Amino acid sequence: MGAVLEVRDVTKSFGAVAAVQGVSFPLYAGEAHALVGENGAGKSTIVKMLAGVHRPDTGTLVVDGERTEFAGPADAKAAGIAVIYQEPTLFPDLSVAENIAMGNQPLTRLRQIDRRAMHVNAARLFARLGVQVDPARPARGLSIADQQLVEIAKALSAEARVLVMDEPTAALSGVEVDRLFAVTRALRDEGAAIVFISHRFEEITALCQRVTIMRDGRHVCTEPVGELTVDDMIRRMVGRDLSTLYPKQEATIGETVLEVEGLSREGVFRDVGFTVRAGEIVALAGLVGAGRSEVMQAVFGVDRYDRGTVRFLGRGLKPGSPRASMAAGMGLVPEDRRQQGLIIELSIARNVTLPRSRALARLGLLFGGAERREAAHWTRQLQTRFGRLSDPVGTLSGGNQQKIVLAKWLATGPKLLIVDEPTRGIDVGTKAEVHRLLSALAARGLAVVMVSSELPEVLGMADRIIVLREGHVTARLTRAEATQEAVMYAATGQPT
Protein backbone atom coordinates (compact mmCIF):
# COMPACT_ATOMS: atom_id res chain seq x y z
CA MET A 1 0.00 0.00 0.00
CA GLY A 2 1.36 3.40 -0.96
CA ALA A 3 2.06 6.22 1.46
CA VAL A 4 -0.70 8.73 2.23
CA LEU A 5 1.98 11.41 2.42
CA GLU A 6 5.70 11.32 1.70
CA VAL A 7 8.35 13.84 2.67
CA ARG A 8 10.86 13.53 -0.17
CA ASP A 9 14.39 14.97 0.08
CA VAL A 10 13.27 18.34 1.51
CA THR A 11 15.65 21.11 2.52
CA LYS A 12 14.97 24.43 4.24
CA SER A 13 17.34 27.22 5.26
CA PHE A 14 16.78 30.43 7.19
CA GLY A 15 19.55 32.80 6.17
CA ALA A 16 22.84 31.01 6.76
CA VAL A 17 21.23 28.38 9.01
CA ALA A 18 20.33 25.09 7.30
CA ALA A 19 17.39 23.87 9.41
CA VAL A 20 16.59 20.77 7.30
CA GLN A 21 18.87 19.06 4.80
CA GLY A 22 17.68 16.25 2.55
CA VAL A 23 15.06 14.64 4.81
CA SER A 24 12.79 11.88 3.51
CA PHE A 25 10.23 9.56 5.12
CA PRO A 26 6.77 8.10 4.30
CA LEU A 27 3.54 8.21 6.31
CA TYR A 28 1.10 5.31 6.01
CA ALA A 29 -2.61 5.08 6.83
CA GLY A 30 -3.35 3.25 10.08
CA GLU A 31 0.14 3.84 11.45
CA ALA A 32 1.63 6.10 14.13
CA HIS A 33 5.02 7.43 13.04
CA ALA A 34 7.36 8.97 15.63
CA LEU A 35 9.59 11.90 14.65
CA VAL A 36 12.43 12.29 17.15
CA GLY A 37 15.66 14.23 17.55
CA GLU A 38 17.36 16.71 19.83
CA ASN A 39 16.06 20.27 20.07
CA GLY A 40 17.31 22.01 16.95
CA ALA A 41 17.32 18.77 14.92
CA GLY A 42 14.74 20.22 12.48
CA LYS A 43 11.53 18.56 13.70
CA SER A 44 9.59 21.82 14.06
CA THR A 45 10.60 22.91 10.56
CA ILE A 46 9.29 19.61 9.16
CA VAL A 47 6.02 20.13 11.05
CA LYS A 48 5.64 23.63 9.61
CA MET A 49 6.25 22.27 6.10
CA LEU A 50 3.49 19.70 6.63
CA ALA A 51 1.23 22.47 7.97
CA GLY A 52 1.88 24.70 4.94
CA VAL A 53 3.56 27.41 7.03
CA HIS A 54 6.96 26.89 5.34
CA ARG A 55 7.66 25.79 1.77
CA PRO A 56 10.71 23.59 1.12
CA ASP A 57 13.63 25.27 -0.66
CA THR A 58 14.20 22.00 -2.53
CA GLY A 59 12.50 18.62 -2.44
CA THR A 60 8.79 18.06 -2.30
CA LEU A 61 5.79 16.68 -0.44
CA VAL A 62 3.94 13.85 -2.16
CA VAL A 63 0.23 13.37 -1.32
CA ASP A 64 -1.44 10.18 -2.61
CA GLY A 65 1.39 9.75 -5.11
CA GLU A 66 1.11 13.30 -6.49
CA ARG A 67 3.84 15.92 -6.01
CA THR A 68 2.24 18.79 -4.08
CA GLU A 69 3.10 22.36 -3.15
CA PHE A 70 1.31 24.05 -0.26
CA ALA A 71 0.96 27.79 -0.79
CA GLY A 72 -0.25 28.15 2.80
CA PRO A 73 -1.98 26.41 5.71
CA ALA A 74 -5.31 26.35 3.83
CA ASP A 75 -3.75 24.08 1.18
CA ALA A 76 -2.41 21.70 3.83
CA LYS A 77 -5.83 21.60 5.49
CA ALA A 78 -7.50 20.90 2.13
CA ALA A 79 -5.06 18.01 1.62
CA GLY A 80 -6.26 16.49 4.90
CA ILE A 81 -3.37 17.48 7.18
CA ALA A 82 -4.02 18.80 10.70
CA VAL A 83 -1.47 19.81 13.35
CA ILE A 84 -2.09 19.54 17.10
CA TYR A 85 0.48 21.76 18.81
CA GLN A 86 1.83 21.38 22.36
CA GLU A 87 -0.05 24.55 23.33
CA PRO A 88 -3.40 24.65 21.45
CA THR A 89 -4.53 27.97 20.00
CA LEU A 90 -8.29 28.09 20.46
CA PHE A 91 -10.39 31.24 20.49
CA PRO A 92 -10.98 31.56 24.26
CA ASP A 93 -14.21 33.58 24.10
CA LEU A 94 -15.93 31.25 21.64
CA SER A 95 -17.64 28.02 22.62
CA VAL A 96 -16.13 24.60 22.06
CA ALA A 97 -18.57 23.96 19.20
CA GLU A 98 -17.74 27.32 17.56
CA ASN A 99 -14.01 26.53 17.73
CA ILE A 100 -14.57 23.14 16.09
CA ALA A 101 -16.69 24.62 13.29
CA MET A 102 -14.43 27.65 12.69
CA GLY A 103 -14.14 28.22 8.94
CA ASN A 104 -16.65 25.48 8.17
CA GLN A 105 -19.83 26.55 9.99
CA PRO A 106 -23.09 24.82 8.98
CA LEU A 107 -25.70 27.20 7.55
CA THR A 108 -29.49 27.33 7.60
CA ARG A 109 -31.55 27.83 4.47
CA LEU A 110 -31.43 31.54 5.17
CA ARG A 111 -27.59 31.40 5.06
CA GLN A 112 -27.27 31.99 8.79
CA ILE A 113 -25.03 29.95 11.07
CA ASP A 114 -26.93 26.87 12.23
CA ARG A 115 -25.93 26.77 15.90
CA ARG A 116 -28.00 23.69 16.67
CA ALA A 117 -26.30 21.71 13.90
CA MET A 118 -22.95 23.02 15.09
CA HIS A 119 -23.55 21.68 18.63
CA VAL A 120 -24.93 18.36 17.36
CA ASN A 121 -21.87 17.89 15.15
CA ALA A 122 -19.49 18.66 18.04
CA ALA A 123 -21.30 16.21 20.33
CA ARG A 124 -21.12 13.54 17.62
CA LEU A 125 -17.36 14.06 17.23
CA PHE A 126 -16.73 13.78 20.98
CA ALA A 127 -18.86 10.63 21.10
CA ARG A 128 -16.74 9.20 18.28
CA LEU A 129 -13.63 10.02 20.32
CA GLY A 130 -15.18 8.45 23.41
CA VAL A 131 -14.74 11.56 25.57
CA GLN A 132 -17.04 14.00 27.33
CA VAL A 133 -16.62 17.71 26.59
CA ASP A 134 -19.55 20.15 26.70
CA PRO A 135 -19.88 21.73 23.21
CA ALA A 136 -21.61 24.78 24.68
CA ARG A 137 -18.96 25.78 27.23
CA PRO A 138 -16.45 28.55 26.42
CA ALA A 139 -12.95 27.43 25.45
CA ARG A 140 -11.51 29.73 28.11
CA GLY A 141 -10.70 27.73 31.21
CA LEU A 142 -10.41 24.35 29.50
CA SER A 143 -7.44 22.27 30.60
CA ILE A 144 -4.63 21.75 28.08
CA ALA A 145 -5.79 18.14 27.72
CA ASP A 146 -9.36 19.18 26.85
CA GLN A 147 -8.09 21.89 24.49
CA GLN A 148 -6.16 19.20 22.62
CA LEU A 149 -9.31 17.08 22.35
CA VAL A 150 -11.11 20.07 20.85
CA GLU A 151 -8.29 20.45 18.31
CA ILE A 152 -8.55 16.73 17.46
CA ALA A 153 -12.32 17.04 17.05
CA LYS A 154 -11.73 20.03 14.78
CA ALA A 155 -9.34 17.93 12.67
CA LEU A 156 -11.95 15.16 12.38
CA SER A 157 -14.56 17.73 11.40
CA ALA A 158 -12.28 18.77 8.55
CA GLU A 159 -11.85 15.07 7.59
CA ALA A 160 -8.11 15.14 8.25
CA ARG A 161 -6.23 12.01 7.16
CA VAL A 162 -2.84 13.01 8.59
CA LEU A 163 -2.71 14.15 12.21
CA VAL A 164 0.56 15.73 13.39
CA MET A 165 0.92 15.79 17.19
CA ASP A 166 3.78 18.02 18.38
CA GLU A 167 4.77 17.21 22.01
CA PRO A 168 1.11 16.66 22.96
CA THR A 169 1.81 15.13 26.39
CA ALA A 170 4.36 17.63 27.75
CA ALA A 171 1.84 19.39 30.03
CA LEU A 172 -0.49 16.47 30.78
CA SER A 173 -0.94 14.30 33.86
CA GLY A 174 -0.72 10.52 33.65
CA VAL A 175 -4.50 10.08 33.45
CA GLU A 176 -4.75 12.72 30.71
CA VAL A 177 -1.96 11.03 28.73
CA ASP A 178 -3.79 7.69 28.94
CA ARG A 179 -6.98 9.31 27.63
CA LEU A 180 -5.11 11.04 24.78
CA PHE A 181 -3.42 7.77 23.81
CA ALA A 182 -6.76 5.93 23.77
CA VAL A 183 -8.16 8.58 21.39
CA THR A 184 -5.02 8.50 19.23
CA ARG A 185 -5.03 4.71 18.96
CA ALA A 186 -8.70 4.80 17.93
CA LEU A 187 -7.94 7.33 15.17
CA ARG A 188 -4.96 5.27 14.03
CA ASP A 189 -7.07 2.12 13.90
CA GLU A 190 -9.70 3.98 11.84
CA GLY A 191 -7.01 4.60 9.21
CA ALA A 192 -5.50 7.99 10.09
CA ALA A 193 -1.75 8.51 9.67
CA ILE A 194 -0.33 9.90 12.92
CA VAL A 195 2.92 11.86 13.22
CA PHE A 196 3.92 11.79 16.89
CA ILE A 197 6.70 14.03 18.25
CA SER A 198 7.88 13.34 21.79
CA HIS A 199 11.02 13.24 23.95
CA ARG A 200 9.52 10.41 26.02
CA PHE A 201 10.70 7.10 24.66
CA GLU A 202 8.18 5.06 26.65
CA GLU A 203 5.40 6.90 24.78
CA ILE A 204 7.01 6.23 21.41
CA THR A 205 7.34 2.49 22.07
CA ALA A 206 3.77 2.32 23.45
CA LEU A 207 2.09 4.13 20.54
CA CYS A 208 4.19 4.11 17.38
CA GLN A 209 4.98 1.48 14.73
CA ARG A 210 7.71 3.39 12.90
CA VAL A 211 10.24 6.06 13.90
CA THR A 212 12.23 8.63 11.93
CA ILE A 213 15.31 9.97 13.73
CA MET A 214 16.84 13.34 12.84
CA ARG A 215 20.13 14.91 13.89
CA ASP A 216 21.41 18.41 13.01
CA GLY A 217 18.72 18.85 10.37
CA ARG A 218 19.53 15.58 8.59
CA HIS A 219 17.71 12.28 8.27
CA VAL A 220 19.48 9.56 10.25
CA CYS A 221 17.13 6.60 9.78
CA THR A 222 13.52 5.45 9.47
CA GLU A 223 12.98 2.08 11.15
CA PRO A 224 10.23 -0.05 12.73
CA VAL A 225 10.06 0.88 16.42
CA GLY A 226 10.24 -2.78 17.42
CA GLU A 227 13.69 -3.13 15.83
CA LEU A 228 15.31 -0.37 17.91
CA THR A 229 16.02 -0.25 21.62
CA VAL A 230 15.84 3.02 23.54
CA ASP A 231 19.66 3.01 23.67
CA ASP A 232 19.74 2.65 19.86
CA MET A 233 17.43 5.66 19.45
CA ILE A 234 19.42 7.81 21.87
CA ARG A 235 22.70 6.90 20.21
CA ARG A 236 21.39 7.82 16.75
CA MET A 237 19.79 11.04 17.99
CA VAL A 238 22.90 12.45 19.63
CA GLY A 239 25.56 10.78 17.49
CA ARG A 240 27.41 9.46 20.52
CA ASP A 241 26.99 7.06 23.41
CA LEU A 242 25.57 8.61 26.55
CA SER A 243 27.37 6.84 29.39
CA THR A 244 24.69 8.17 31.70
CA LEU A 245 21.89 10.68 31.68
CA TYR A 246 22.51 11.38 35.36
CA PRO A 247 26.20 12.20 35.90
CA LYS A 248 26.04 12.72 39.65
CA GLN A 249 29.31 14.08 41.08
CA GLU A 250 30.40 13.60 44.63
CA ALA A 251 29.96 16.81 46.62
CA THR A 252 31.00 17.94 50.09
CA ILE A 253 27.82 18.73 52.02
CA GLY A 254 28.20 22.03 53.89
CA GLU A 255 26.15 24.29 56.12
CA THR A 256 22.37 24.59 56.02
CA VAL A 257 21.33 27.18 53.44
CA LEU A 258 17.52 26.89 53.52
CA GLU A 259 15.18 25.96 56.39
CA VAL A 260 11.45 25.66 55.77
CA GLU A 261 9.22 24.97 58.80
CA GLY A 262 5.45 24.45 59.00
CA LEU A 263 4.77 26.19 55.70
CA SER A 264 1.03 26.26 54.98
CA ARG A 265 -1.32 27.87 52.50
CA GLU A 266 -5.03 27.22 52.83
CA GLY A 267 -6.24 24.63 50.31
CA VAL A 268 -2.83 24.25 48.65
CA PHE A 269 -0.23 22.83 51.08
CA ARG A 270 0.13 22.40 54.82
CA ASP A 271 2.89 21.90 57.40
CA VAL A 272 5.64 21.51 54.82
CA GLY A 273 9.16 21.47 56.23
CA PHE A 274 12.60 20.57 54.95
CA THR A 275 16.21 21.78 54.86
CA VAL A 276 18.73 22.17 52.05
CA ARG A 277 22.48 22.32 52.60
CA ALA A 278 25.33 23.66 50.49
CA GLY A 279 26.45 21.11 47.89
CA GLU A 280 23.20 19.19 48.14
CA ILE A 281 20.49 18.48 45.57
CA VAL A 282 17.12 18.03 47.28
CA ALA A 283 14.26 16.87 45.03
CA LEU A 284 10.57 17.55 45.61
CA ALA A 285 8.72 14.59 44.08
CA GLY A 286 5.05 13.75 43.74
CA LEU A 287 2.20 13.54 41.26
CA VAL A 288 0.88 16.50 39.27
CA GLY A 289 -1.12 18.67 41.65
CA ALA A 290 0.75 17.57 44.77
CA GLY A 291 1.75 21.18 45.51
CA ARG A 292 5.48 20.97 44.80
CA SER A 293 5.70 24.05 42.55
CA GLU A 294 3.38 26.01 44.83
CA VAL A 295 5.60 25.33 47.85
CA MET A 296 8.73 26.55 46.08
CA GLN A 297 6.97 29.63 44.66
CA ALA A 298 5.96 30.50 48.22
CA VAL A 299 9.52 29.94 49.44
CA PHE A 300 10.85 32.26 46.73
CA GLY A 301 8.18 34.87 47.42
CA VAL A 302 6.14 34.65 44.21
CA ASP A 303 3.15 33.52 46.28
CA ARG A 304 2.27 34.26 49.90
CA TYR A 305 1.77 31.65 52.59
CA ASP A 306 -0.53 31.71 55.63
CA ARG A 307 1.72 30.13 58.28
CA GLY A 308 5.26 28.91 58.72
CA THR A 309 8.78 30.29 58.39
CA VAL A 310 11.48 30.40 55.74
CA ARG A 311 15.05 30.95 56.91
CA PHE A 312 17.86 31.55 54.45
CA LEU A 313 21.48 31.39 55.63
CA GLY A 314 20.21 31.59 59.20
CA ARG A 315 17.99 34.66 58.72
CA GLY A 316 14.25 34.96 58.32
CA LEU A 317 13.24 35.68 54.72
CA LYS A 318 10.59 38.30 54.02
CA PRO A 319 7.45 36.51 52.75
CA GLY A 320 5.89 37.45 49.44
CA SER A 321 8.98 39.27 48.15
CA PRO A 322 10.94 37.80 45.21
CA ARG A 323 13.18 40.88 45.37
CA ALA A 324 14.21 40.00 48.95
CA SER A 325 14.87 36.39 47.91
CA MET A 326 17.03 37.47 44.98
CA ALA A 327 18.95 39.95 47.13
CA ALA A 328 19.62 37.21 49.70
CA GLY A 329 21.11 34.91 47.03
CA MET A 330 18.26 32.77 45.74
CA GLY A 331 17.31 32.00 42.12
CA LEU A 332 14.20 30.37 40.64
CA VAL A 333 14.07 28.60 37.27
CA PRO A 334 10.27 28.28 36.79
CA GLU A 335 8.39 25.39 35.20
CA ASP A 336 7.03 27.52 32.35
CA ARG A 337 10.19 29.04 30.91
CA ARG A 338 8.42 30.91 28.08
CA GLN A 339 5.77 32.61 30.22
CA GLN A 340 7.64 33.04 33.51
CA GLY A 341 11.35 32.60 32.85
CA LEU A 342 11.97 34.66 29.72
CA ILE A 343 10.76 37.74 27.88
CA ILE A 344 10.45 36.12 24.48
CA GLU A 345 10.56 39.33 22.44
CA LEU A 346 13.82 40.55 24.02
CA SER A 347 17.30 39.55 22.91
CA ILE A 348 19.33 36.66 24.29
CA ALA A 349 21.77 39.13 25.87
CA ARG A 350 19.01 41.15 27.57
CA ASN A 351 17.36 38.04 29.00
CA VAL A 352 20.66 36.74 30.45
CA THR A 353 21.43 40.06 32.16
CA LEU A 354 17.95 41.10 33.35
CA PRO A 355 18.50 40.31 37.06
CA ARG A 356 21.84 42.13 36.95
CA SER A 357 20.78 45.20 34.99
CA ARG A 358 21.38 47.57 37.92
CA ALA A 359 24.78 46.09 38.71
CA LEU A 360 25.90 46.39 35.07
CA ALA A 361 24.59 49.94 34.63
CA ARG A 362 26.80 53.03 34.88
CA LEU A 363 25.19 56.29 35.99
CA GLY A 364 21.82 54.65 35.53
CA LEU A 365 22.50 53.63 31.93
CA LEU A 366 22.91 50.05 30.70
CA PHE A 367 25.50 49.91 27.92
CA GLY A 368 25.37 47.22 25.25
CA GLY A 369 29.04 46.29 25.59
CA ALA A 370 28.76 45.29 29.25
CA GLU A 371 25.56 43.41 28.55
CA ARG A 372 27.09 41.49 25.65
CA ARG A 373 30.24 40.58 27.59
CA GLU A 374 28.23 39.23 30.50
CA ALA A 375 25.88 37.29 28.21
CA ALA A 376 28.73 35.92 26.10
CA HIS A 377 30.46 34.58 29.21
CA TRP A 378 27.43 32.67 30.49
CA THR A 379 26.20 31.38 27.15
CA ARG A 380 29.71 30.06 26.54
CA GLN A 381 29.79 28.44 29.99
CA LEU A 382 26.51 26.66 29.28
CA GLN A 383 27.42 25.75 25.67
CA THR A 384 24.34 27.48 24.31
CA ARG A 385 23.67 27.31 20.57
CA PHE A 386 22.46 30.52 18.94
CA GLY A 387 23.12 32.82 16.00
CA ARG A 388 23.74 36.22 17.60
CA LEU A 389 23.30 37.56 21.11
CA SER A 390 21.01 40.20 19.63
CA ASP A 391 18.58 37.54 18.32
CA PRO A 392 15.22 37.32 20.16
CA VAL A 393 15.37 34.53 22.73
CA GLY A 394 12.14 33.15 21.25
CA THR A 395 14.08 31.98 18.19
CA LEU A 396 16.02 29.42 20.25
CA SER A 397 15.12 25.76 20.69
CA GLY A 398 13.49 24.71 23.96
CA GLY A 399 16.72 23.29 25.36
CA ASN A 400 18.67 26.43 24.59
CA GLN A 401 15.93 28.60 26.08
CA GLN A 402 16.27 26.58 29.28
CA LYS A 403 20.01 27.24 29.27
CA ILE A 404 19.33 30.98 28.98
CA VAL A 405 17.06 30.85 32.05
CA LEU A 406 19.80 28.99 33.94
CA ALA A 407 22.41 31.49 32.73
CA LYS A 408 20.24 34.38 33.92
CA TRP A 409 20.26 33.10 37.48
CA LEU A 410 23.82 31.77 37.56
CA ALA A 411 25.00 35.25 36.59
CA THR A 412 23.67 36.50 39.94
CA GLY A 413 26.00 34.19 41.88
CA PRO A 414 23.23 32.47 43.89
CA LYS A 415 23.70 30.42 47.05
CA LEU A 416 20.50 28.44 46.33
CA LEU A 417 18.97 27.57 42.96
CA ILE A 418 15.40 26.29 42.66
CA VAL A 419 14.81 24.45 39.37
CA ASP A 420 11.20 23.49 38.57
CA GLU A 421 10.94 20.72 35.94
CA PRO A 422 14.42 21.58 34.60
CA THR A 423 14.31 19.18 31.63
CA ARG A 424 10.62 19.22 30.64
CA GLY A 425 10.22 19.34 26.87
CA ILE A 426 13.94 19.18 26.04
CA ASP A 427 15.76 16.41 24.21
CA VAL A 428 17.81 13.64 25.74
CA GLY A 429 21.19 15.13 24.85
CA THR A 430 20.36 18.50 26.39
CA LYS A 431 18.89 16.73 29.43
CA ALA A 432 22.28 15.15 30.05
CA GLU A 433 23.94 18.56 29.74
CA VAL A 434 21.51 20.15 32.23
CA HIS A 435 22.03 17.26 34.68
CA ARG A 436 25.79 17.56 34.33
CA LEU A 437 25.59 21.30 34.99
CA LEU A 438 23.41 20.93 38.09
CA SER A 439 25.71 18.24 39.46
CA ALA A 440 28.79 20.38 38.83
CA LEU A 441 27.17 23.39 40.51
CA ALA A 442 26.34 21.31 43.58
CA ALA A 443 29.90 19.99 43.65
CA ARG A 444 31.08 23.64 43.84
CA GLY A 445 28.89 24.23 46.89
CA LEU A 446 25.61 25.51 45.41
CA ALA A 447 22.45 24.30 47.18
CA VAL A 448 19.87 23.02 44.66
CA VAL A 449 16.15 22.31 45.06
CA MET A 450 14.78 20.36 42.09
CA VAL A 451 11.07 19.89 41.41
CA SER A 452 10.61 17.05 38.93
CA SER A 453 7.85 14.74 37.71
CA GLU A 454 10.37 12.35 36.13
CA LEU A 455 11.21 9.59 38.60
CA PRO A 456 14.47 8.56 36.91
CA GLU A 457 15.63 12.19 37.12
CA VAL A 458 14.72 12.37 40.82
CA LEU A 459 16.46 9.09 41.64
CA GLY A 460 19.48 9.85 39.47
CA MET A 461 20.20 13.38 40.68
CA ALA A 462 18.94 13.87 44.24
CA ASP A 463 20.86 13.44 47.50
CA ARG A 464 17.55 13.55 49.38
CA ILE A 465 13.93 13.30 48.22
CA ILE A 466 10.92 15.01 49.80
CA VAL A 467 7.69 13.37 48.55
CA LEU A 468 4.47 15.41 48.59
CA ARG A 469 0.89 14.21 48.22
CA GLU A 470 -2.09 16.55 48.23
CA GLY A 471 -0.01 19.36 49.71
CA HIS A 472 1.70 17.58 52.59
CA VAL A 473 4.95 15.66 53.03
CA THR A 474 4.46 11.88 52.99
CA ALA A 475 8.09 10.70 52.88
CA ARG A 476 11.68 11.86 53.30
CA LEU A 477 14.14 9.54 51.59
CA THR A 478 17.92 9.52 51.33
CA ARG A 479 19.58 8.60 48.05
CA ALA A 480 20.32 5.13 49.43
CA GLU A 481 16.72 4.57 50.54
CA ALA A 482 15.01 5.87 47.41
CA THR A 483 13.52 3.49 44.84
CA GLN A 484 10.82 4.05 42.24
CA GLU A 485 8.46 1.91 44.31
CA ALA A 486 9.15 3.82 47.55
CA VAL A 487 8.58 7.21 45.90
CA MET A 488 5.41 6.10 44.11
CA TYR A 489 3.94 4.50 47.24
CA ALA A 490 4.45 7.79 49.10
CA ALA A 491 3.16 9.89 46.17
CA THR A 492 -0.05 7.88 45.83
CA GLY A 493 -0.68 7.34 49.55
CA GLN A 494 -0.40 3.56 49.32
CA PRO A 495 0.96 1.61 52.30
CA THR A 496 4.43 0.11 51.77
UniProtKB/TrEMBL annotation:
Protein name in the entry: D-xylose ABC transporter ATP-binding protein
Primary localization: membrane
Domain of life per record: Bacteria
Source organism phylogeny: Bacteria, Bacillati, Actinomycetota, Actinomycetes, Micromonosporales
Record localization: Cell membrane
Any single GO CC term annotated in Swiss-Prot or TrEMBL for this entry: plasma membrane
InterPro entries documented for this protein: AAA+_ATPase, ABC_carbohydrate_import_ATPase, ABC_transporter-like_ATP-bd, ABC_transporter-like_CS, P-loop_NTPase
Keyword Nucleotide-binding: yes
Cited PROSITE patterns: ABC_TRANSPORTER_1, ABC_TRANSPORTER_2
Keyword Membrane found: yes
Gene3D superfamilies the UniProt entry points to: P-loop containing nucleotide triphosphate hydrolases
MF GO annotations: ATP binding; ATP hydrolysis activity
UniProt entry keywords in alphabetical sequence: ATP-binding, Cell membrane, Membrane, Nucleotide-binding, Repeat, Sugar transport, Translocase, Transport
Topology in membrane: Peripheral membrane protein
Pfam families: ABC_tran
ABC transporter domain sequence ranges: 5-241, 252-495
